[in-house]
Amino acid sequence: MLDVARRAGVSQPLVSLVIAGSPTARVADATRERVLRAAKELGYRPNVVARALVSRRSYALGLIVPELRNPFFTDVVSGVERVAAEQGYALLLCDAMDVPAERHVEALRSRQIDGVIIDAMGAASLSPDALADLNVVLIDQPSDIYRCVTSDAAGAGRLAAEHLLEHGHRRIGFLGPASTLWAFRMRERGFAQALKAAGVGLRSDDFRRAPATAAGGLAAMQALLAAADGPTAVFCANDLMALGALKACTAAGVDVPGAMSIIGCDDIETARLVTPELTTVAVRAREMGARAARMLLRLVHGEAVRAMKPLAVRLAVRGTTGAAPAGV
Amino acid sequence: MLDVARRAGVSQPLVSLVIAGSPTARVADATRERVLRAAKELGYRPNVVARALVSRRSYALGLIVPELRNPFFTDVVSGVERVAAEQGYALLLCDAMDVPAERHVEALRSRQIDGVIIDAMGAASLSPDALADLNVVLIDQPSDIYRCVTSDAAGAGRLAAEHLLEHGHRRIGFLGPASTLWAFRMRERGFAQALKAAGVGLRSDDFRRAPATAAGGLAAMQALLAAADGPTAVFCANDLMALGALKACTAAGVDVPGAMSIIGCDDIETARLVTPELTTVAVRAREMGARAARMLLRLVHGEAVRAMKPLAVRLAVRGTTGAAPAGV
DNA sequence: TTGTAAGCGTTATCAT
DNA sequence: ATGATAACGCTTACAA
C-alpha cells in the first residue's frame, strides 16, 4: 500500500481510503483515479489478514456440519459456499465427523470468525456458552437464542401422509431415527397428525426406529417385511433410509410400488438414480444453505434480520409410490 | 497477551514465547507454568489473525473443486478437511461451479493462504501464472510444475477391461466424456490397451462420448441400445455415467447383467444403493484428499516431499456385471 | 480533501 | 532467561 501511495504521490492511509472504497470516503476524483491506476500498475492486492486484524473482522464464515458426505449437508454447504464466495467471504468448512464441533468452534473463534452456521446436531453437542457472543445461524433447528433457517418439516410429513392416503393406503408405516432433532421430530409429527386427522391409525409395529442412514432403512424395512401382516406403505424420515428400504424390498422380491409404497424426504440426487425413482418430499437444502448464509451476513453487517418462515417443501411424485394393493 | 503477561508478572513477548511453545524457546520452567496458568485463568485464546499477519502465514489451506456436489469431490473435500482440522489448519472451501477458479485463487491469495489444493479441471482453467509462488497440490493431474496426488487411472481402466474379459465379453463398449483431463484419458487408455492386449477390438460404434454425468450416461446408453447389434458390456468413465447407463437399461427392459454388463469407476456411495449394486473400480477419493492435504502441509512446512506413486485402485465386483450372454 | 499518528495482537531481533 | 523495541499491512480518528 505504501508503494502504491508513493507511486500515486499520496499518503498511505489515503490509498486505504480509496481501496476500501467506503461510501463516506470523500476523495477527489483525480486522486482516486491516480491511486487506482498506481494500484493496478503495481498489481496491488489488499491483504485481508491485515484488514482483519485492525477491523476485528475476518471476512470469513464458519460452517459446521455433522457429516459432509451426507448428501443433504453437501447441498447445504454448496448453498452457503455460493453466497459466501459471491459476497467476498471465505468459507471455513468444518466437519464434526472426526473432530468435535466444540473444537471447531474454538478454532473458528481464534480466527476471529465473523459468524457461524451450524446444524442442529452440532449445536446440540455444544456446551451452553460455546457460541456466546458469536453471530450464529442454525440449520433446521428453531431456537430462542439464535437465528435459524428451517424447512417446513411438519408439512413434509403431512404431504407424505396425504400422498399415501390418496393412494388408498390405510396400513401405513414409519421408519425414522430415535432422534431428538427438531426436523426429524417434526417430520414424524406432521406425518402422524395427518394420519390421525384422516382417521388412520399408526400401529406401533409399523413404527420402526433406526439410524437415519441407508443401512438403517434397510434393516428397518427387513424387520417390517418379516412381520406377517405389515403395512402397504411407509414414510421414511429421510431419503437415505428410503433408499435402504427400497433396497430391502427389491432384495426380498417385494414389488415397489405394487406391494409396498415408499416415500422419502429430502430429495437427494440419488433419489432419481434408483429404479424405480424414489418418491419423496423435496427439501431445498441448497437454498437453506444460501438463506442461512444471507441471514448470517446480515447479522454480521448489523442489518435487521427478520425471522423467516420455514422453507416450503414440495412433493416429488415418482416411482416408488402407487395405489394400495387391492384386498388389503 | 498483555493481560496474561501482567498477571504472570512477565513481559508480553515472553508470553508469546511460551504460548507458541517453540522447541528453541528457553524459558524457565517456573515462568512457563506461571504464564500458562495465567493464560488459563484468563481464558486466553491466541489470535490466529495477528499471528498470521506477522508470520506471513495464514494457517489455512484452500481447496478448489469443480463441483462440490459431485460425490467424488465431496469425498476429496472430506479427506482434506479431516487432515487440515487435525493439524490445526482451517480449510477454505471454494466451489468453481458458480465462481471461476481464478477468482477463488485471487481471494485465497489475499488471505495469505499457506497452500492450495486444486483439481485438474480447475487447474486447467487458470491462466499460466495464477498459481505462481503458491504451494500447490493437484488432484489427479500429474504436472511438471506442481506436486500432485493421483490414482492409478490407467490401472482402473485395465481392471475394468480384464473383469469384463474374464466374464467372456468380446463386444465391449465404452462410455466417457470428451475430456482432456488426465484421469479420464488414462482410464480410457488403460481400458483400451487391455482390450487390445487381449486381442479384442473396440468398435467405434461402441465408443460413446457424453458428459461424465448420470444424464450423459443415460443418453449414451440409450444410443447404444438403439443400435441393432450392440456390445454386451460397457465400461463407464465414472460411476455417475454408469448409474445413468444402468437406468437406461432398466427403463428399456434390458436385463443387467443378463443382457448387458456395466462397470463404473470411482465407487461413490450411490453405487451400493442401486439394484443391482454397481460393479465398479473403487478409487479412494477421500484418501486422495487426505494425501493431498498431508503433502501440502509438508510443502508448507518446508519438509521434503517425495512424489507419491499413484493410489492403488480396487475392483469392487457387485451386481451389474456377469457372464456374456451365450451365442453372441 | 489529504496527511499524521496511533494501534490491531502477534512474532522476532536484539540487548540486558 | 527475560525484557524492550520494532515490525506485519492495514483502518481510523483527528489534524491540517
Please give a structural write-up:
2 copies of one chain form a homodimer. Chain A is of the alpha/beta class. Helices cover 43% and strands 15% of the residues of chain A. Chain A contains 12 helices and 11 strands. Chain A has a 6-stranded mixed beta sheet, with helices on both faces. In chain A, strands 2-1-3-4-5 form a 5-stranded parallel beta sheet, with helices on both faces. In chain A, strand 1, helix 5 and strand 2 form a beta-alpha-beta unit. The termini of chain A are far apart. Chains A and B meet through helix 4, helix 5, strand 2, helix 6 and helix 11 of A and helix 4, helix 5, strand 2, helix 6 and helix 11 of B. Chain B binds a DNA duplex (16 and 16 nucleotides) through helix 2 and helix 4.
Describe how the helices and strands are arranged.
The structure is a homodimer of 328-residue chains.
Chain A: H1 2-8, H2 12-20, H3 29-42, H4 48-55, E1 60-65, H5 71-86, E2 90-95, H6 101-110, E3 115-119, H7 120-124, E4 136-139, E5 147-149, H8 153-166, E6 172-176, H9 182-197, E7 207-209, H10 214-226, E8 233-236, H11 239-252, E9 261-266, E10 279-282, H12 285-300, E11 314-316
Parallel strand pairs in A: 1-2, 1-3, 3-4, 4-5, 6-7, 6-8, 8-9, 9-10
Antiparallel strand pairs in A: 10-11
Helix pairs in contact in A: 1-2, 1-3, 5-12, 8-9, 10-11
The structure holds a DNA duplex (16 and 16 nucleotides).
Q: Which terms summarize this structure?
A:
homodimer; 328 residues; alpha/beta; six-stranded mixed β-sheet; five-stranded parallel β-sheet; DNA-binding
